[in-house]
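Hello again,

I reread your note about wanting to compare the complex against the isolated chains. To keep things tidy I'm splitting this into two emails, and this first one only covers the full assembly. Below are the input lines as submitted, including protein chains and any nucleic acid or small-molecule components. They are followed by the predicted structure of everything together. The single-chain runs will come separately.
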Amino acid sequence: MPHLDEGYIHAMLDGELTAADREAAEQHLRACTECQQLLAEARSLFAEADRLVETLVPPPAGKPVRQAAPIRARRKNYQWLGWAATVVVAMGLGYYGSALRDRPQAAASDDSALKQEALREAAPGSVAAAPQADAASGLEQKNERRPAPELAKSAPGAKAAESTATTSANAPGDLTMRGQRSDALERSAEEGQMLRDKERDEKDAKAQAEPPGRLVELPMPKPKVLNTEIPTGFRASSLEEAVRVLGGSVLLIDGMTPQMVLVGPGAGFAGGNPNRDVIRVVYDDPPGRQLWLDQQRIEQSPEGAAQALGAANKLNLLPGDTLVMPGPDGASSLNWVSQTMFRLELRGFLPADSLRVLARRVR
Amino acid sequence: MAHTVESLYATYHESLVRMLYRRTGDRDRAEDLAQEVFARALTTPPDNPRPWLFAVALNLVRDDGRRAVRQGRRLQLLKAESTTTSPGPEHEYEKEQQLRAIRAALDEMNERDRDVLLLKAEGFNYDEIAATTGLAKGAIGTTLARARRRLVEAYRKQDRDRYAAS
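Full-complex prediction:
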């Protein structure tokens, strides 16, 4: 037998030789050191190549291949939060500092006090509104305000005003210019405090009307309802039929197992083509409620695409946009037109953010 | 013998996606292409499904690759992948580098050699590889021998370059 070529040796290693051919090759190999060397080399290449190819394993479904961008995006968000927090703290300090600065100025400057009095006389409504705001505000705001006069008293300027006022009070009937000025000072200090109190009350009332998002009590998720009923107008469909209806592959949520595939009229599919059927892939969300992925392929022909996009644009949707719409019974839906020209709707009892996360896994 | 798309999907989807992932380096793209393959199987039910499905898949990869090159998508993809090399734990980084080297080695091979090698990795015998690729069965052994040699040599070169650069 002639020497074995490399291809023949690989066919032997792959188990592709007939028993007779293999026997003949092995017989030759026993006598030929050159071919033995070739076989050893082929074995090494065979094992190494297999190992290399088998190292390439697809990442598990649902795990993004590219992770760096989202991580950077999250870092960016934290940076923004940091900046926002800095701005809020700076504004707060500025407000507090200006409040402290105003008090001594009001007490120390007679002229500014007189000006403030003139201002009060010119705009009495603004001061008169303060008690109403007091009445409207709750106990907490009143309690919050209590330390303010104490703070004003502790300020040197305010102490001066207080002592001047006390002096004038200890001399009843002495209506000198100095007494008038001290009255004006006292009034202006009180008035300034009232204006600041009013402003703070308004802020508190506004804050109560719009509590911060993190304090909002979220409704409890609905109890698990295993609803296997087929919605009105829909009927069970096979995957083959769904592919036929769509005119192409069915889009699915990566990493989730569909429970049912339904087909129904497109008339009820907002922003879809009413003349074409819609495919609904039904999933169970983690608490066991139904999650619907409705889909309709937008026609590939220019006329059809224009018509379908026109229908989608009733929802003001362009490819890449998403629109969250509330549904009945607390459900909500996420609507979008994919870049691959699918009109899609994901409807369920999950928060909008969760729907968006799932929508990113639709492929 | 008639096969339903469901049964084809259940039998071949995982293998098809794995082969497409090895071929493209992009899981999402592999999934999309696999979906397209099964959609085509629906309109043209194959008699000999495994070679048929993989042949369609490889054709789609070639078409998709040409289109991607025209659209500049390949550059974008390489750029996006390069961001994954953010320094992490050392072994993760090392593994990432190794995968990159294997992928680069595969990319250096000619299309036919690469396809034959990837089909063999999915357990195809020589008859099925011949049916899928259109090669003569007698040429498969030689093609595989060459493909294995080129992959290993290209990988070793990548590996040497990597360590020389570091």
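For quick reference: The helical segments of chain B are 5-24, 27-43, 49-71, 73-82, 90-108, 111-121, 126-133, 137-165.

B.
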